[in-house]
DNA sequence: CTAAAAGTCTACTAATGTTATAGGATTTAT
DNA sequence: ATAAATCCTATAACATTAGTAGACTTTTAG
């Protein structure tokens, strides 16, 4: 049940961008700054941010003084959206995926006990990640710092 | 967030063994029968059952008329135990794992927003898998069949 | 006692996925 | 024009996964 480094780095970067949004209007931040502050390999982060950009979650500005910033207010972006962009479906098995259903190979899906339980697991994960916004995470971090 | 085939096959096999326990005292079943009924490659299943045996979750009997059976009553075995044996820790990131903690590389664990949320995810998964027994799964399957 | 039926155990392989790194192309401010 | 930044694609090194192969051991039936 592991989160990939790609997903981890991407989520951490997005939380940083959400935090930056509070200091300046857009919160535009350069790759190298995110990379330095979060200790993420810069060229790897570049690919990740590009994927998030293509998914419409961040915008960017090229050239001198450019950088990345959230495409929407931080309370309009959920961790679930970021996760799915970088790591694919939340569901532990494809046969309970809402976004990318596929049969998993059990003889009868309707009476597959594993499928029932994994459906619960998927819903539990979704209830957290699809209902947690970047703004909520930033708020929680501030509470922890206090 | 994917369950491996190894984990999937192992969980399905264990649910079958739990069901078999209701028909005969031990519910002893041969690899080839599990393999046929669950459509799992026999030699792969062999390795999986061996791992479950070494973890003390099933017992076996060699020779003619042998097979595998649950080491305890089906209500004494949780899906969490099986999952961990075959796929490792439940936690999406090591820094929130109860069984196998390791730092994940964020600059400060105490104020890492991702870590907080992933802690919640781990707990949600654990609440399901560590509280669901094989007996409960079998019961649920029967309810679905009715 | 022997042969067949079952699990035991280890090694190997092919395919895939992960985690990067490299380097040129493009855009923008000065 | 130049420097600073993102854009984009390729590729390499490594790890994991899913499965296969085969020799070995134990047990029972005859």
Index terms:
mainly alpha; two-stranded antiparallel sheet; Arc Repressor Mutant, subunit A; homodimer; 146 residues; DNA-binding
CATH topology of chain A: Arc Repressor Mutant, subunit A
Strand percent estimate of chain A: 5-15%
Radius of gyration of chain A over all CA atoms, rounded? 17 Å
Largest interface, and how many residues on either side?
A: A-B, 44 and 43 residues
Helix content of chain A: 40-55%
CATH architecture of chain A: Orthogonal Bundle
* Quaternary class: homodimer
User: Main beta sheet of chain A, described?
Assistant: 2 strands, antiparallel
Give the CATH class of chain A. Mainly Alpha
Give the low-confidence spans of chain A: none
Q: Secondary-structure element sequence of chain A?
A: HHHEEHHH
How far the N terminus sits from the C terminus of chain A, by CA atoms, comes to: 32 Å
């Amino acid at each position: 049940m592991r989160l990939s480094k790609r997903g981890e780095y991407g989520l951490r970067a997005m939380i940083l961008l959400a935090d930056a949004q509070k200091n300046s209007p857009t919160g535009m931040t350069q790759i190298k700054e995110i990379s330095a502050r979060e200790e993420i390999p810069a060229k790897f982060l570049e690919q990740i941010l590009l994927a998030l950009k293509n998914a419409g979650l961040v915008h960017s500005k090229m050239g001198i003084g450019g950088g990345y910033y959230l495409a929407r207010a931080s309370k309009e972006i959920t961790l679930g959206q970021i996760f799915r962009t970088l790591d694919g479906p939340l569901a532990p098995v494809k046969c309970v995926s809402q976004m990318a259903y596929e049969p998993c190979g059990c003889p009868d899906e309707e009476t597959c006990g594993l499928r029932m339980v994994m459906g619960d697991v998927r819903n539990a994960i979704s209830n957290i990640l699809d209902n947690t916004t970047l703004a909520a995470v930033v708020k929680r971090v501030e509470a922890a710092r206090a």
